[in-house]
Structures are given as structure tokens and as C-alpha cells.
Amino acid sequence: KATMKSLRFLSAEAFVSNAEFARKSLSSVAHNLFPLLFKASYLLEQRDVIHDLVENWPLVDFNVGKLLGTTVDYQEDLSHRTCSVCLESCLTGLRDYVLNHPSPCVKKLKVVDLTGIKDVEVQFCGCKKTMGRWARTELLSKLCLELIVQLQQTQCKPCTFEISIDVLIDLFVTERNYELVVQALKQKCYCPLKICCVAFRADSLALQKFFYIIKLIDASLLRKLEVVHNVRLEMEHLEILFNSIHFPLLMSLTLPARTFNVKRLTAADELMLTTIGEKLGEMTQLTELNLAFSLLTGRIQKLLSPLKTPLKMLDLSNCSLNHADMAYLANSSHSNHLEALDLSGHSIPDLYPSTFFKLLSHSSSVLRILVLEDCNIQDTHVNMLILGLSPCQNLQEFKFLGNPLSSQALKHLFTFFCELPMLKNVEFPVPMDCYPIGITYPIDDASLCRFDHQKYESIAEELNLILLQANREDVKASTPLFGSYDAALQETNNELGAYLIKSFKETLEKFTASFSKMS
């Protein structure tokens, strides 16, 4: 639905829609109107006006998230528009702010914040071309290096070299942009635009390179660290990382699959695990932890009990938790604060139903996101599940793909979903009766799409009708067969695929060499 625009905003749109006139007139525009004109230009994708507004920015800070977010004059939030045209204009405008301002001595800009940009699946901008986190990392690094060269080549006023602007950004580094980002970070002291990494994501990167770049980043500013997929970080490397670098502000930590494997622990490894737990305890701001696909059977208490702050987000999907782990979680201080919980890949009804529901009752007043994919939840468990979820009146997202549930059980659940006032997003499995008889769960990737699509569409329609008849069209229900949208994965999936093939090839070569030796 259309969002109301104030008269001021409509005037701003009219002003910037004539780009040539707007650019010529900027010098006579009142400074407090720049934010308004920026949002109007962004909405209309007026790249040249955006560039000139940033190049002549008269204020102390330039916070993209706030400028594009909900404002008095236009309430629509544009911060999820990662429009390539607009963002490139912002960043080149920033470079030219340093180079071209007629009087560098009176420049006010001190902080640029790019962290409020949200990467989403559906883009509403006209150009339909996005600039994701990886591309923003690459472009900023490139512009910083260009700026250093240009400053060396041109006759700038001495004041220009005194300009120092902190650029807060969420960096995303892979093998492909690694060299560029490293160069930009190494030469940070020579550049007026100071890259300040607030969140860092590493993927498809050799371990040695990860350790090198993490030391170039000012870890004292880091609030979020994601080490994912193709970074072969194991427990001993994690201990080295935590012993060599201090993360005082870290709030969120994601570790790659198989960082921990307690199946083959020696006494020395147990000690290492204790040390890692203690190091996590020193991170007093840590409230989000993602340990998915690590083998952690019986060790959850050892890792989580040293934490000083209760966790708000915990992902323990496919971690082979046992009853002792679940009992610790249910009785720990974390249980009363969990806003997001992922326990996918555990057969909850079989292994620890009562302990799980105890955990659910403790977190019910604050729980917003619950993910229980591939948890062997069957028709016979639906009443128990409804009973457990009933107190979770703040639940906004519930994802339970991959569970063997019939269409009848799903209808029962959807009738209950209508009673959860805050619910906005549901990801439900393909009903069991759409698959051939005898299908086994968890369903392998090859069989995942082999279901009666027509029957599924008909059932999905009935489920949506249940929501519609209860006036709950605000709830979005879907079945993303291969998981939810991940902006970072989407942006780098070609590189990720190539990296996986390379790893597979290397493994195969090692195996062939070993086999030849044996022969």
C-alpha cells in the first residue's frame, strides 16, 4: 500500500527530479534539507543528484540507514533498497567529497555509516540491479586505494590531508576480493576515508588468509564475526584466534560447520574446549551464537556456562545434542532470554520432548523466531506442539520444513497459527501425502522435488484460506524447498560452487596419490 508523503517530501521530489537544475542549485540549499533531498533522490534513483549531495554533504555524519529509514516526511523504509546505481553514487560522491571540495578546511563530515543497509530478496528499485555486501566491500576498498593515488598525484591543499572520516561498514571477504581489501586495510593510515569494520564475514578463504586479514581489522570495533562455509576453522585454530585477538564489543559469532567434533576428543582437546568456553565468557557483549553443524554432544554446558551475558540468539542445528545438553539449556539463564532458537536436525519428540517444552516455556515471553526443521515432528506430536507453542505470544517466525506431517496435521497447525498475534512468517513442509508412499525422512536432495506439485498447490491454497478466513493475511506462508533466502550466499554462490569443486578435486587427488602408494 502507498505511504503518505508530506508536502515537504513532494517538494523535494519535484526539486530533484530535474537533475540539472537541482545540481546547479545545491549551493543555495539550506543544510538541514540535505537529508530530505537525499531520500527523495534515492527514491527516484537520481544518481547525479545523489553524488552531488554526498560530495557537498554539510553535516557531521552521513548515516545511510537513518537517512533512508522511516522519516517524518516519508515513512517508507528504503534501507532495504540496495540499489546499485544509488549506492555507487553515494560512494563515489564520498570519494569526491575528499578530492573536490572548494574549501577542505571547513569540512564537517566525520562519520559515514553504511551498516544500516539491509540486503533482501525482492528489490523494488527501478534498475533492479543490487549492490550486495560483497560488492560494497569491493567498491569501498577500490575507492580508498584510488583516493590515495589521486591525492599523491594532484596538488591538494594541506588541509585535505587532515580530513579523517570514519566509514563504518560490514565487510564481506572471499578469495576473490581478498587482495584488494587487504591493500585498502594496510594503507588505511594514508587514506582520509578510514575503513572501520563493524561486522566481518569470511567465506571461501584459506585459513592463513583469514588469520592475516582479521589482524588488519581493528577487532576492538567488531560487533559481528561470521566465519562460514569454506574456511576450515577447527577447534585448535579457534583457540589460537581467541588467544591472539581480543573482541571486547563482539555481540554475534558464527562459526563454520565442523569447527567442533567431540567424537575424537583427547584430554588436551577437552582442555582446549574449556579454554574456548572461558574466552567466550570474556566477551561480555556476546548475545548471539551460531554453532550449526558442529558435533557438540554432551559439551554444551562446557561451552555456554562461562558466558556472562544470557544469549538472545542460539543456533544449534545439527549439533547432535543429547539429553544432558537439552537439560542444561532448559535450566540455564539463557532459556529466559532466547529470542531466536534453531534446534533443527534433532529428533525432539523422540529424544527429549519434556525437556524441550520446558525450554520453550521458559523462553515463551521473549521468543520471536523458532526453527525446528528435520526434527521428526509427526502427526501424533501436533497437539503437544500446539500446547508448547501456545504461550509464545510474541512468536513472529516459525520454520518447520522437512518434518513428516500430513495435510490434515498442517491444517490443524494453521488453525492454531491464527491465534498467535505477532506471527508474520511460516515455512511449512511439503505435506507427506504429496510424496510417494514409503518416502523416508529426512528426505535426500534427489527426492526432495519428487512430489505431486498439483496436490501441493491445492493444499497450500487451503492452508492460506485458513489464514485468510481468520483475517490473518499478514502471515506469509511458504515452502522454500532448499532453505530460506540468504543474501550473502546468493551474491557469492558462483565462487562458493567453484571453491567446493576445487576442494573436492584436491581431496580426490590426495586419495588417488595415497591409493597409488598403497598399490
UniProtKB/TrEMBL annotation:
<keyword id="KW-0677">Repeat</keyword>
<dbReference type="InterPro" id="IPR032675">
    <property type="entry name" value="LRR_dom_sf"/>
</dbReference>
<dbReference type="GO" id="GO:0005737">
    <property type="term" value="C:cytoplasm"/>
</dbReference>
<protein>
    <recommendedName>
        <fullName>Leucine-rich repeat-containing protein 14B</fullName>
    </recommendedName>
</protein>
<dbReference type="InterPro" id="IPR050694">
    <property type="entry name" value="LRRC14/PRAME"/>
</dbReference>
<keyword id="KW-0433">Leucine-rich repeat</keyword>
<comment type="similarity">
    <text>Belongs to the PRAME family. LRRC14 subfamily.</text>
</comment>
